[in-house]
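User: Can you recover a sequence for this backbone? Please restate the input before giving your answer.

Assistant: Of course. Working from this structure:
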């Protein structure tokens, strides 16, 4: 789900398990989405190499420290839609399925999954899996955990992924059956994200309103929540009762460093051993620091400008198109992303279409939003719409230059075509509220967003424009679009689904529901003493910290 200068995003999501033959095809979809070897943005930007992984750890560690750009407001899994929460929570709480570092789907807490018919998923759980507080996982815990996502009183960030669920029931001591209202090609994929997390029913009920903000999370992962020094850090401790391979480091310290320069200085000084979401302005400095290695990997991420208000001047699609035509995307990739990315007119990443038939993939990317500026045409559109001199407000933040420079680029684009684009500065810790609080978006027409797919399917992003969807902040509503989303969701055949998704992509592009800007790889920095962290965006849902160990 959601994501801002960092969200998922997430919509969060939706999926479904397929019969055996379709499952094989589905597995191929995920497996084919591997990272390319290099990228240059296609615009003359400096080349950057995508690495499939970092070297495997050679030994154990007493501890390592990790820099994150903001403190999570909560670690309750039903609210885990953004980078800070999921970067930490993925090591503590596990889901029914698992996203691998290669961005493929694998068994998680469910050792076996079957789909006896298109509207049924059966999850057979692993035996003897212990929660951090000592209890043993049962089907009751799964039913309760998924039920919290579905309870409207909880306002779960992942509720959208459960809208098609009819019932979740215990069908055996270690078996849970999910019944769907209609076929759903996405549901089982989302069971590898925070949507599929299983926590102890007893532990959650005992914690009450404090669950996620203090005490134990009572999950099953390789790490358990240790100390939480509010405003400064969270420490995780290795869980020795873990059912799988034990973590290589006894402790992990996550340090909240909201200032980009402070994060980078911490990594260079050794105060922090590494970090994801590296400030783009520091790519060169870290690469040349001599204290570690900066890696790039598949991110399934696109940088866009999220349209949050269509009641004002942006309600006219001609104004949205004018802003898009005036944007210097290549310039933003060079400066805002330090050359590590590529300008795009597509809201979805090309990697999300890796398994699509070639003709469908071609169709999906033909005739999309132009990436080259056309100022004369943009001025004409603004004039036609009667919007000359009108005000548009875009949010900005000091989270990193990828956010601040994109907001400035939008302001510059507006100035060139007769729009008065005002900037509204949002503190890094408050930026997440743009995704969760309508009041935080009041007075804002646009904000920069880096959206990452939580599954390897274009529908993850494209479903955001369905009526009532989690990230449909502008309130776009079109019955024909909604019907296409439903058809794509129900399509068990990947070829059929991709064809429908190509139609959705063209509609979203034509309407400019968000303004696409660039594709952006994942970046991770590791100093010389540690290794093993994945380079891909899998770290959002995979227990990546358990793989980090000594490099020597």
């Amino acid at each position: 789900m959601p994501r801002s200068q960092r969200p998922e995003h997430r919509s969060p999501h939706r999926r479904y398990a397929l019969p055996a033959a379709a499952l094989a095809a589905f597995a191929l979809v995920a497996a084919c989405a591997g990272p390319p070897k290099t990228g240059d943005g296609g615009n003359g930007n400096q080349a950057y190499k995508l690495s499939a992984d970092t070297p495997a750890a050679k030994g154990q560690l007493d501890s390592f420290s990790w820099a994150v750009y903001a403190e999570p407001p909560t670690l309750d899994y039903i609210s885990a839609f953004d980078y800070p929460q999921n970067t930490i929570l993925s090591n503590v709480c596990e889901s029914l399925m698992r996203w691998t570092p290669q961005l493929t789907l694998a068994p998680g807490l469910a050792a076996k999954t079957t789909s006896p018919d298109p509207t049924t998923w059966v999850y057979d759980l692993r035996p003897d899996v212990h929660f951090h507080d000592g209890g043993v996982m049962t089907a009751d815990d799964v039913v309760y955990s998924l039920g919290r996502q579905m309870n409207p009183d909880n306002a779960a960030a992942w509720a959208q992924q459960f809208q098609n669920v009819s019932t979740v029931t215990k069908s055996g001591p270690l078996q849970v059956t999910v019944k769907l209202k209609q076929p759903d090609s996405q549901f089982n994929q989302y069971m590898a994200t925070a949507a599929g997390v299983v926590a102890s029913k007893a532990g959650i009920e005992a914690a009450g309103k404090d669950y996620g903000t203090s005490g134990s999370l009572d999950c099953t992962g390789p790490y358990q929540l240790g100390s939480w020094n509010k405003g400064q850090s969270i420490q995780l401790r290795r869980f020795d009762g873990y059912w799988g391979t034990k973590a290589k480091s006894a402790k992990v310290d996550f340090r909240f460093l909201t200032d980009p320069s402070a994060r980078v200085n911490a990594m260079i000084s050794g105060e922090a051993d590494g970090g994801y979401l590296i400030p783009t302005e520091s790519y060169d400095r870290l690469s040349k620091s001599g204290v570690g290695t900066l890696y790039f990997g598949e991110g399934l991420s696109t940088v866009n400008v999220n349209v949050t208000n269509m009641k004002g001047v942006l309600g006219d699609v001609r104004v949205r198109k004018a802003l898009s035509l005036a944007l210097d995307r290549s310039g933003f990739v060079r400066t805002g992303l330090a050359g590590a990315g590529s300008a795009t007119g597509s809201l979805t990443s090309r990697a999300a279409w890796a398994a699509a038939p070639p003709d469908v993939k071609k169709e999906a990317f033909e005739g999309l939003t132009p990436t080259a500026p056309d100022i004369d045409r943009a001025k004409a559109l603004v004039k036609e719409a009667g919007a000359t001199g009108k005000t548009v407000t875009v949010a900005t933040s000091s989270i990193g230059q990828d956010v601040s420079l994109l907001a400035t680029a939008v302001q510059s684009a507006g100035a060139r075509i007769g729009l008065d684009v005002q900037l509204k500065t949002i503190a890094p810790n408050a930026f997440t509220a743009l995704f969760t609080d309508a009041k935080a978006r009041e007075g804002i027409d646009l904000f920069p967003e880096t959206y990452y797919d939580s599954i390897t399917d274009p529908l993850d992003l494209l479903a955001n424009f369905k009526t009532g969807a989690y990230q449909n902040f502008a309130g776009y509503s079109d019955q024909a679009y909604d019907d296409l989303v439903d058809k794509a969701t129900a399509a068990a055949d990947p070829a059929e689904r991709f064809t429908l998704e190509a139609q959705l992509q063209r509609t979203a592009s034509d309407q400019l529901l968000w303004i696409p800007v660039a594709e952006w790889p994942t970046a991770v920095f590791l100093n010389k003493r540690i290794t093993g962290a994945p380079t891909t965006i899998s770290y959002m849902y995979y227990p990546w910290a358990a793989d980090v160990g000594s490099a020597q």
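That completes the design. The longest strand covers residues 292-307.
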